[in-house]
Amino acid sequence: MKLSSLIALALTAVFLIGCTGPDQYPISGEECGPNDPVKDLSVPDCLPE
Question: Which of 20 and 42 is assigned the larger pLDDT?
Answer without folding.
Answer: 42
